[in-house]
């Protein structure tokens, strides 16, 4: 299985190439430079592996939620490459990819991405027997102070939402986090890990069905809403 994965839903731009059991990756924290960096990263990975584009079997893409422009870029790039090479695509939750970075300490994982406007994109996950994370419910967007979580004795918390809203999120947990890191972003390497079983089983989708996940349509507060939040 030769699988190319891309992830640009947040400030981090990354690409990864899974060649059999070998995983190569490129990642750079570069807000507003994703469009400039993404395709050269993909070409560099293929060159490092000595692999032609025609040797790819599937694509994987972090489909969001996250920054609107970043999510659109990843989906557009995945669709373009997939159409050009006639490849299936495996969409992967950017929150699930983020949750993959949490430590294996027995605690469940709360992945939170800063959604601006006082809100977070959030998802709760549990690591399975295959070491991949599994969602414990629907992903959501909403105020950090109103976050609803499934019952769990302990939580790891990861993502930029923690860096911005740690106090509000901590108040929603049953106890202090077992571990927390607000300086982590979804990575293409984890998108590849999560997508690999689906790709190997031949369950990818056609390019036109690889769709972005925004969770909300609104990207800014009106002036009246801004005044209400002051």
Describe this structure in words.
- The chain is α/β, with parallel strands linked by helices and 230 residues long.
- The protein has helices at 34-49, 68-85, 94-99, 160-170, 188-200, 223-228, and strands spanning 2-7, 12-19, 22-29, 58-62, 89-92, 108-116, 119-127, 133-135, 140-143, 155-158, 179-181.
- Strands 6, 7, 8, 9, 10 and 11 form a 6-stranded mixed beta sheet that branches.
- The chain starts with a strand and ends with a helix.
- Mean pLDDT is 94; it is low at 218-230.
Annotation keywords:
230 residues; six-stranded mixed sheet; five-stranded mixed sheet; 11 strands; disordered C terminus
Helix count equals 6
The SSE order reads EEEHEHEHEEEEEHEHH
User: How confident is the prediction overall: mean pLDDT?
Assistant: 94
Radius of gyration (CA) equals 18 Å
Please tell me what the overall shape is.
globular
Q: Percent range for helical residues?
A: 25-40%
SSE-based structural type: alpha/beta
Number of strands: 11
Largest sheet: 6 strands, mixed
Cα distance spanning the termini: 52 Å
> What percentage of amino acids are in beta strands?
25-35%
Unreliable stretches, pLDDT < 50, 5 or more residues? Answer: 218-230
């Amino acid at each position: 299985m030769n699988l190319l994965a891309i992830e640009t839903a947040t400030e981090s731009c990354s690409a990864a190439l899974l060649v059999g059991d070998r995983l190569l990756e490129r990642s750079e924290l570069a807000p507003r430079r994703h469009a400039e960096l993404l395709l050269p990263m993909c070409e560099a990975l293929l060159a490092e592996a000595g692999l032609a584009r025609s040797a790819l079997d599937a694509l994987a893409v972090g489909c969001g939620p996250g920054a609107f422009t970043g999510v659109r870029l990843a989906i557009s790039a995945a669709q373009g490459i997939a159409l050009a090479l006639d490849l299936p695509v495996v969409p992967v939750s950017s929150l699930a990819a983020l949750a993959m970075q949490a430590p294996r300490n027995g605690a469940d994982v709360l992945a939170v991405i800063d959604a601006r406007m006082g809100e977070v994109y959030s998802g709760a996950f549990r690591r399975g027997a295959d070491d991949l994370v599994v969602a414990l419910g629907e992903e959501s967007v909403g105020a950090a102070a109103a976050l609803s979580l499934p019952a769990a004795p302990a939580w790891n918390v990861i993502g930029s939402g923690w860096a911005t809203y740690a106090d509000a999120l901590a108040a929603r947990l049953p106890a202090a986090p077992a571990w927390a890191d607000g300086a982590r972003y979804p990575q293409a390497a984890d998108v590849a890990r999560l997508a690999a079983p689906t790709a190997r089983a031949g369950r990818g989708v056609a390019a036109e069905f690889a769709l972005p996940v925004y969770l909300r349509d609104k990207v800014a507060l009106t002036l009246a809403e801004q005044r209400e939040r002051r």
